[in-house]
Protein backbone atom coordinates (compact mmCIF):
# COMPACT_ATOMS: atom_id res chain seq x y z
CA UNK A 1 0.00 0.00 0.00
CA UNK A 2 0.97 3.64 -0.38
CA UNK A 3 2.60 4.77 2.87
CA UNK A 4 1.25 7.76 4.80
CA UNK A 5 2.74 10.06 7.44
CA UNK A 6 1.01 12.94 9.22
CA UNK A 7 2.90 15.24 11.58
CA UNK A 8 1.92 18.05 13.92
CA UNK A 9 3.81 20.87 15.59
CA UNK A 10 1.23 21.59 18.28
CA UNK A 11 -2.18 23.25 18.23
CA UNK A 12 -1.49 26.51 20.01
CA UNK A 13 -1.56 30.08 18.80
CA UNK A 14 1.48 30.72 16.61
CA UNK A 15 2.65 34.36 16.61
CA UNK A 16 2.78 35.74 13.08
CA UNK A 17 6.55 36.21 13.11
CA UNK A 18 7.01 32.50 13.85
CA UNK A 19 4.40 31.02 11.54
CA UNK A 20 6.57 30.65 8.44
CA UNK A 21 9.30 28.84 10.36
CA UNK A 22 6.76 26.56 12.08
CA UNK A 23 5.22 25.72 8.73
CA UNK A 24 8.53 24.93 7.09
CA UNK A 25 9.51 22.88 10.18
CA UNK A 26 6.50 20.56 9.93
CA UNK A 27 6.91 20.25 6.14
CA UNK A 28 10.56 19.32 6.56
CA UNK A 29 9.70 16.72 9.21
CA UNK A 30 6.91 15.21 7.10
CA UNK A 31 9.24 14.93 4.11
CA UNK A 32 12.02 13.36 6.20
CA UNK A 33 9.61 10.71 7.50
CA UNK A 34 8.00 10.18 4.11
CA UNK A 35 11.27 9.64 2.27
CA UNK A 36 12.09 6.84 4.73
CA UNK A 37 8.67 5.28 4.11
CA UNK A 38 9.17 5.49 0.35
CA UNK A 39 12.46 3.65 0.76
CA UNK A 40 10.62 0.81 2.52
CA UNK A 41 11.37 1.79 6.14
CA UNK A 42 8.95 0.98 8.95
CA UNK A 43 6.35 3.38 10.23
CA UNK A 44 8.24 3.38 13.56
CA UNK A 45 11.45 4.56 11.86
CA UNK A 46 9.47 7.23 10.02
CA UNK A 47 7.64 8.72 13.01
CA UNK A 48 10.82 8.79 15.10
CA UNK A 49 12.74 10.51 12.29
CA UNK A 50 9.99 13.11 11.79
CA UNK A 51 9.84 13.87 15.51
CA UNK A 52 13.64 14.11 15.81
CA UNK A 53 13.58 16.78 13.08
CA UNK A 54 11.06 18.82 15.06
CA UNK A 55 12.89 18.29 18.38
CA UNK A 56 15.98 19.74 16.69
CA UNK A 57 13.98 22.70 15.38
CA UNK A 58 13.88 25.48 18.02
CA UNK A 59 10.45 26.66 16.83
CA UNK A 60 8.66 23.80 18.58
CA UNK A 61 8.03 22.95 22.21
CA UNK A 62 10.13 19.77 22.18
CA UNK A 63 13.85 19.09 22.47
CA UNK A 64 15.63 22.41 21.87
CA UNK A 65 12.95 25.08 22.16
CA UNK A 66 11.05 23.34 24.97
CA UNK A 67 9.10 25.55 27.36
CA UNK A 68 10.58 26.10 30.82
CA UNK A 69 9.28 24.82 34.12
CA UNK A 70 8.74 27.00 37.17
CA UNK A 71 12.46 26.88 37.98
CA UNK A 72 13.44 27.90 34.44
CA UNK A 73 14.61 24.39 33.49
CA UNK A 74 13.73 22.06 30.62
CA UNK A 75 12.10 18.73 31.49
CA UNK A 76 10.81 16.71 28.55
CA UNK A 77 8.36 13.86 27.93
CA UNK A 78 8.16 11.54 24.89
CA UNK A 79 6.36 8.42 23.71
CA UNK A 80 6.49 5.90 20.86
CA UNK A 81 4.07 3.07 20.18
CA UNK A 82 4.18 0.23 17.67
CA UNK A 83 0.77 -0.78 16.33
CA UNK A 84 1.85 -4.27 15.28
CA UNK A 85 2.83 -5.52 18.73
CA UNK A 86 1.34 -2.79 20.96
CA UNK A 87 4.84 -2.31 22.37
CA UNK A 88 5.51 1.17 23.66
CA UNK A 89 8.35 3.16 25.17
CA UNK A 90 8.36 6.48 26.98
CA UNK A 91 10.46 8.88 29.01
CA UNK A 92 9.18 11.55 31.35
CA UNK A 93 10.71 14.58 33.05
CA UNK A 94 14.01 13.84 31.32
CA UNK A 95 16.79 16.44 31.13
CA UNK A 96 20.03 17.00 29.25
CA UNK A 97 19.31 15.07 26.06
CA UNK A 98 18.59 16.47 22.61
CA UNK A 99 16.13 13.84 21.38
CA UNK A 100 13.80 12.35 23.99
CA UNK A 101 11.89 10.44 21.30
CA UNK A 102 15.03 8.48 20.48
CA UNK A 103 15.40 7.56 24.15
CA UNK A 104 11.71 6.54 24.30
CA UNK A 105 12.32 4.19 21.40
CA UNK A 106 15.32 2.67 23.18
CA UNK A 107 13.16 2.13 26.28
CA UNK A 108 10.81 0.15 24.04
CA UNK A 109 13.56 -1.76 22.22
CA UNK A 110 16.04 -2.41 25.01
CA UNK A 111 14.16 -2.67 28.30
CA UNK A 112 11.24 -4.68 29.60
CA UNK A 113 9.54 -1.46 30.75
CA UNK A 114 7.19 1.04 29.15
CA UNK A 115 8.41 4.26 30.80
CA UNK A 116 11.52 5.58 32.53
CA UNK A 117 11.52 8.88 34.36
CA UNK A 118 13.85 11.71 35.43
CA UNK A 119 17.26 10.58 36.76
CA UNK A 120 16.57 6.91 35.92
CA UNK A 121 15.92 7.90 32.31
CA UNK A 122 19.17 9.91 32.27
CA UNK A 123 21.12 6.95 33.65
CA UNK A 124 19.63 4.72 30.97
CA UNK A 125 20.54 7.31 28.32
CA UNK A 126 24.15 7.25 29.49
CA UNK A 127 24.17 3.45 29.54
CA UNK A 128 23.03 3.23 25.92
CA UNK A 129 25.47 5.91 24.78
CA UNK A 130 23.14 8.88 24.21
CA UNK A 131 25.29 12.00 24.54
CA UNK A 132 24.47 14.40 27.35
CA UNK A 133 23.84 18.02 26.34
CA UNK A 134 23.77 21.09 28.57
CA UNK A 135 20.45 22.46 29.76
CA UNK A 136 21.52 25.80 28.26
CA UNK A 137 21.74 24.26 24.78
CA UNK A 138 18.06 23.25 24.99
CA UNK A 139 16.87 26.69 26.10
CA UNK A 140 16.09 29.26 23.42
CA UNK A 141 15.92 33.00 23.91
CA UNK A 142 12.21 32.83 23.02
CA UNK A 143 11.51 30.20 25.71
CA UNK A 144 13.38 32.30 28.28
CA UNK A 145 11.47 35.43 27.22
CA UNK A 146 8.09 33.64 27.56
CA UNK A 147 9.07 32.28 30.96
CA UNK A 148 10.10 35.72 32.22
CA UNK A 149 6.94 37.30 30.80
CA UNK A 150 4.81 34.69 32.49
CA UNK A 151 6.33 35.56 35.88
CA UNK A 152 5.25 39.19 35.54
CA UNK A 153 2.44 40.21 37.91
CA UNK A 154 0.15 41.16 35.00
CA UNK A 155 0.75 37.90 33.10
CA UNK A 156 -2.27 36.25 31.54
CA UNK A 157 -1.82 32.53 32.23
CA UNK A 158 -4.45 31.41 29.71
CA UNK A 159 -2.94 33.46 26.90
CA UNK A 160 0.57 32.33 27.69
CA UNK A 161 -0.38 28.64 27.88
CA UNK A 162 -2.18 28.85 24.54
CA UNK A 163 1.05 30.06 22.98
CA UNK A 164 2.87 27.08 24.41
CA UNK A 165 1.21 24.15 22.75
CA UNK A 166 3.93 23.43 20.21
CA UNK A 167 4.30 19.79 21.21
CA UNK A 168 5.29 17.66 18.22
CA UNK A 169 4.07 14.32 16.97
CA UNK A 170 3.60 11.98 14.04
CA UNK A 171 1.53 9.00 12.97
CA UNK A 172 2.32 6.76 10.01
CA UNK A 173 1.28 3.68 8.06
CA UNK A 174 4.08 1.93 6.14
CA UNK A 175 3.99 -0.20 2.98
CA UNK A 176 3.33 -3.35 4.99
CA UNK A 177 0.36 -1.74 6.69
CA UNK A 178 2.12 -1.38 10.04
CA UNK A 179 1.14 1.67 12.06
CA UNK A 180 3.09 3.73 14.62
CA UNK A 181 2.92 6.97 16.57
CA UNK A 182 5.43 9.23 18.31
CA UNK A 183 4.93 12.37 20.44
CA UNK A 184 7.46 14.65 22.18
CA UNK A 185 7.11 17.76 24.34
CA UNK A 186 8.61 20.17 26.82
CA UNK A 187 5.19 20.15 28.51
CA UNK A 188 3.41 23.20 29.90
CA UNK A 189 5.05 26.54 30.62
CA UNK A 190 5.75 27.06 34.33
CA UNK A 191 4.85 23.49 35.23
CA UNK A 192 6.00 22.22 38.62
CA UNK A 193 9.28 20.33 38.70
CA UNK A 194 8.60 16.65 38.09
CA UNK A 195 5.22 17.29 36.45
CA UNK A 196 4.45 14.54 33.94
CA UNK A 197 1.89 15.36 31.28
CA UNK A 198 -0.17 13.30 28.87
CA UNK A 199 2.56 12.89 26.26
CA UNK A 200 4.40 9.84 27.73
CA UNK A 201 1.17 8.11 28.80
CA UNK A 202 -0.12 5.58 26.27
CA UNK A 203 -3.73 6.24 25.42
CA UNK A 204 -3.31 9.95 26.19
CA UNK A 205 -0.29 11.38 24.31
CA UNK A 206 -0.67 8.73 21.63
CA UNK A 207 -1.78 5.25 20.75
CA UNK A 208 -1.17 2.91 17.81
CA UNK A 209 -2.90 -0.34 16.92
CA UNK A 210 -2.67 -1.95 13.48
CA UNK A 211 -6.28 -3.08 13.85
CA UNK A 212 -7.68 0.43 14.32
CA UNK A 213 -5.22 3.24 13.59
CA UNK A 214 -3.00 5.69 15.42
CA UNK A 215 -3.31 9.08 17.09
CA UNK A 216 -0.76 11.63 18.38
CA UNK A 217 -2.17 14.40 20.57
CA UNK A 218 -1.30 17.89 21.74
CA UNK A 219 -3.01 20.32 24.08
CA UNK A 220 -3.68 20.68 27.78
CA UNK A 221 -2.16 17.50 29.20
CA UNK A 222 -4.22 17.31 32.37
CA UNK A 223 -7.43 17.47 30.28
CA UNK A 224 -6.13 14.97 27.70
CA UNK A 225 -5.36 12.48 30.48
CA UNK A 226 -8.84 12.83 31.99
CA UNK A 227 -10.42 11.56 28.76
CA UNK A 228 -7.48 9.42 27.49
CA UNK A 229 -7.93 11.30 24.24
CA UNK A 230 -5.90 9.12 21.84
CA UNK A 231 -7.60 5.89 22.92
CA UNK A 232 -11.00 7.60 23.00
CA UNK A 233 -10.64 8.58 19.33
CA UNK A 234 -9.63 5.04 18.37
CA UNK A 235 -12.64 3.73 20.29
CA UNK A 236 -14.91 5.87 18.10
CA UNK A 237 -13.12 4.55 15.00
CA UNK A 238 -13.75 1.00 16.24
CA UNK A 239 -17.42 1.95 16.44
CA UNK A 240 -17.36 2.80 12.73
CA UNK A 241 -16.61 6.52 12.70
CA UNK A 242 -14.25 7.95 10.07
CA UNK A 243 -10.84 9.28 11.11
CA UNK A 244 -12.04 12.88 10.97
CA UNK A 245 -15.38 12.29 12.68
CA UNK A 246 -13.79 10.25 15.47
CA UNK A 247 -11.12 12.91 16.01
CA UNK A 248 -13.76 15.65 16.20
CA UNK A 249 -15.97 13.63 18.55
CA UNK A 250 -13.01 12.96 20.89
CA UNK A 251 -11.94 16.62 20.93
CA UNK A 252 -15.52 17.83 21.41
CA UNK A 253 -15.98 15.46 24.33
CA UNK A 254 -12.78 16.73 25.97
CA UNK A 255 -14.01 20.31 25.58
CA UNK A 256 -17.55 19.73 26.84
CA UNK A 257 -16.61 17.33 29.66
CA UNK A 258 -13.49 18.98 31.10
CA UNK A 259 -13.06 22.25 29.14
CA UNK A 260 -9.92 20.94 27.41
CA UNK A 261 -8.45 22.28 24.18
CA UNK A 262 -6.03 20.57 21.86
CA UNK A 263 -5.36 18.90 18.54
CA UNK A 264 -4.63 15.49 17.05
CA UNK A 265 -3.26 13.76 13.98
CA UNK A 266 -4.91 10.43 13.19
CA UNK A 267 -4.53 7.62 10.63
CA UNK A 268 -6.46 4.45 9.91
CA UNK A 269 -5.09 1.15 8.53
CA UNK A 270 -6.19 2.06 4.97
CA UNK A 271 -4.13 5.26 5.08
CA UNK A 272 -7.09 7.57 5.70
CA UNK A 273 -5.89 10.52 7.77
CA UNK A 274 -7.03 13.57 9.69
CA UNK A 275 -5.51 16.61 11.44
CA UNK A 276 -8.11 18.20 13.73
CA UNK A 277 -8.04 20.72 16.56
CA UNK A 278 -10.42 22.70 18.75
CA UNK A 279 -7.88 25.19 20.10
N1 LIG B 1 2.03 21.44 24.25
C1 LIG B 1 1.41 20.40 24.64
O1 LIG B 1 0.76 19.72 23.88
C2 LIG B 1 1.55 20.12 26.06
C3 LIG B 1 1.46 18.68 26.45
N2 LIG B 1 0.27 18.04 25.98
C4 LIG B 1 1.51 18.62 27.95
O2 LIG B 1 0.52 18.89 28.60
O3 LIG B 1 2.55 18.35 28.47
From TrEMBL:
<dbReference type="InterPro" id="IPR000246">
    <property type="entry name" value="Peptidase_T2"/>
</dbReference>
<feature type="active site" description="Nucleophile">
    <location>
        <position position="167"/>
    </location>
</feature>
<protein>
    <recommendedName>
        <fullName>Isoaspartyl peptidase/L-asparaginase</fullName>
        <ecNumber>3.4.19.5</ecNumber>
        <ecNumber>3.5.1.1</ecNumber>
    </recommendedName>
</protein>
<keyword id="KW-0068">Autocatalytic cleavage</keyword>
<dbReference type="InterPro" id="IPR033844">
    <property type="entry name" value="ASRGL1_meta"/>
</dbReference>
<keyword id="KW-0645">Protease</keyword>
<keyword id="KW-0378">Hydrolase</keyword>
<dbReference type="Pfam" id="PF01112">
    <property type="entry name" value="Asparaginase_2"/>
</dbReference>
<dbReference type="GO" id="GO:0005737">
    <property type="term" value="C:cytoplasm"/>
</dbReference>
<comment type="similarity">
    <text>Belongs to the Ntn-hydrolase family.</text>
</comment>
<dbReference type="GO" id="GO:0006508">
    <property type="term" value="P:proteolysis"/>
</dbReference>
<dbReference type="GO" id="GO:0033345">
    <property type="term" value="P:L-asparagine catabolic process via L-aspartate"/>
</dbReference>
<feature type="binding site">
    <location>
        <begin position="218"/>
        <end position="221"/>
    </location>
    <ligand>
        <name>substrate</name>
    </ligand>
</feature>
<dbReference type="InterPro" id="IPR029055">
    <property type="entry name" value="Ntn_hydrolases_N"/>
</dbReference>
<dbReference type="GO" id="GO:0004067">
    <property type="term" value="F:asparaginase activity"/>
</dbReference>
<feature type="site" description="Cleavage; by autolysis">
    <location>
        <begin position="166"/>
        <end position="167"/>
    </location>
</feature>
<dbReference type="GO" id="GO:0008798">
    <property type="term" value="F:beta-aspartyl-peptidase activity"/>
</dbReference>
<feature type="binding site">
    <location>
        <begin position="195"/>
        <end position="198"/>
    </location>
    <ligand>
        <name>substrate</name>
    </ligand>
</feature>
